[in-house]
Each structure stands twice: as structure tokens, then as C-alpha cells.
Amino acid sequence: MTRAEPVPPAFVRDEDTTAPTVGRAAHGFRASLDPANPLRVPSVVADAGQLGPYWVAAAALTGLSHLHLGTTGQDRYSFHADASTQGVAVTVADGLGSRPRTAQLGADTLARTLSQALAATPGTAFGSDPRPAVAAAVAIANERLCDTADPRGPENLASVFAAARLPESGGPLILARVGDCSAFGLGPDGFFPIFGEKDGALNEPGAYLPADDPLTGLELRTVPAGGCRALVLATDGLAEDLRGSPAIRDWLAARWERPCHTMWMLNSLRYRRQGSHDDRTALVVWFPPFE
């Protein structure tokens, strides 16, 4: 006996939103749940609140392409404040789409481990050249991924990241990435990219973790104290929209002008843009003193 094709409801209710629609966005997009993957992650995750001296808001929304196909989203974020060092670090990570069942586990492990390792590193270790301290934290995260992965296929946890060690006592903001995640500063004139443009498509990461040499694709940037009033870490689905759409930049700059709570953060990412079907993840850090 053949099971009949399921018939979706004729009408599915949703909460109203003021988020804009840019271009010719598809309507009637059918959403399906990942039916047979016990490793799937929730389609929506969000947080907001005080993290040490900073205010942080973050959200990860599974993209329409995953929802339409009934596959899991692959973006994750994490933050950590270390009680011993007083260090604070934040990370966003994106599992590679070519590993559709398990890459989200790599992204989760990478984001959590790297945030912990960066925060646990004393601020004095970053000094005038932060690269050795950042490289050591990345190596710890890479080792954790290798230990977690199936030795027959460690690439099944393949993920990329952008991370930040937040400043201490007037020091600089230290940022690192491997792959195609991005970071933006938000100032009075709007967003500015902290990492340069990559060659080729934004969603072709090149380097990723775990890797035999995790430092091959490591990029590092510093932003002086006071260089921005907010920091945005973003996976490529959101970064591509920020780079490519003035309307989305204006929308998010206005939404994130001041610290926000969880529902405000979620609604910020509910815009619709033609061709924007990937997962969207953003983690925003506001620096004191707050307006």
C-alpha cells in the first residue's frame, strides 16, 4: 500500500511583521520539517541579555531552502564569559551545506569551543600581536572537532566561523575567521565590513575546520576601542544580504541602533529578499556606555 502524498493546510497563520520585502520574493513557499534526521536542530534560536559589561542579542533562522526541502539548518552561535580571566568572546559558525545531515553538529561544537577558548585566554596574552593567542584557541577548537568526528569522515563536521574576543580596559576588539562568515561594525553612518571582500561567491568558503592545518585559512583583524558602537557577526546568508541590499542595510541599522530584546532581534531577521533562501544568523554586541 502506497502512502498518499500529505496535503498541507490551506491556510497557516503567522505573526504579523513590519520587516520589509525587497524585490520579487516568492510567495506560497511550502515549509517542511526534517523528518528522519535525529541530529536536526531547531529552526529558530534566539537570545538577548547582559553578558559581562556588554549587551548581546543573537538569532539563527533556518533558511527557506532548508524548510522547503525538509532539511535541518546548519548555523549556530555561542557566547562565553570566563570567570577567571573576565574575558568575553562570541562566535557564529556555519556548517557546510555539502554535509546536510551532520554539519550543524560541527558548527555547534566549533562555536561553543572557540568562544570558551578565546574567553579563557588572559587578555595580556593577546598583547601587541594577538595572532599566537587566537591561533592557539582555534587549534583547541579544531582538535575538539577532530575528537568528535567519525575518523572515517571528519569532514562531515566541516564548518566555518567568525569570532571576536571583546575588548578589555580600552584594548582593541580582536576578530578572527576561517571561511565565509563575516563581521561588520555599526556606527553613526551605518555598517562597515571588518573583513575584506572574498574572491568569488560569498558562499564558497574555501578553508574550513576541521583541517590538518587549522591556521591555513585564518584571518585576523583588530578594531580600536571606540571604533564602533556595535559589532555584528553574521553567517554568509545574512552577510550576503547586508552587502547586496541597501534596503536591508537601512532596515537592520535602524533595528540595531540600540540594544534590543529577543523578539525584537527575531523580527529583525524576518525580512524577505529576492533570492535570499539561506540560513540567517546574526550576533550583535553593543558596547557600553549605552545610549
TrEMBL record:
Domain PPM-type phosphatase, residue spans: 62-258
Official protein name in the record: PPM-type phosphatase domain-containing protein
Organism: Acrocarpospora macrocephala
